[in-house]
Amino acid sequence: LCYSALLLTMIFSMGEPMPYHHYEHLNAEFVQFLLDVVEDGLLSDSTDQLPDLFVNVMLSFNLHILVPSNNIVMTTLAKRENVKVITEKLLLLLNRADDPVCIFKHQPQPPHSVLKFLQDVFADKSTGNIFYRTDMMVMIDIIVRQISDLSPGEKT
């Protein structure tokens, strides 16, 4: 599963639209499976790499979904009660200020996957409340620190 997750991340990281018939398999059940493994782990995963790899798959898969109202990642996320692990991983990635799915250096670059994911999360009330209040405070601290670290005229 590790290599499959890495391959899917590479394919989705381009940010290009998929053929429509792929959504027959890459649907809400697929996203639910990814979330289940991220949150609960998998018994056969002795290295504990799958949760991180599956977060990358979700981030890259979310890149090519342009309309938030049709976003199956956000719809599935909203239906889930426990998303503690994925929110922690998102905060960690935001703190690193690194895009884990930016694998290829091609033009035009797709948007930053973590920022787009967070933008999509906060675009809807049903997903906007998945973060705990303390996590929100940490997120604000991270953003303020990153802004204050910028030089005048510097672009991120």
TrEMBL record:
Q: Which GO terms describe its biological process?
A: endocytosis
Which InterPro entries does the record cross-reference, listed alphabetically?
SPIN90/Ldb17 (IPR030125), SPIN90/Ldb17_LRD (IPR018556)
Tell me which positions the record assigns to the signal sequence. Answer: 1-17
Tell me the GO molecular function terms. Arp2/3 complex binding
Domain SPIN90/Ldb17 leucine-rich span(s) in chain numbering = 48-154
The protein's UniProt keywords, in alphabetical order, are:
Signal
* Sections of the chain in a coiled coil: none
Its name, as the record gives it, is: NCK-interacting protein with SH3 domain-like protein
Provenance organism? Callorhinchus milii
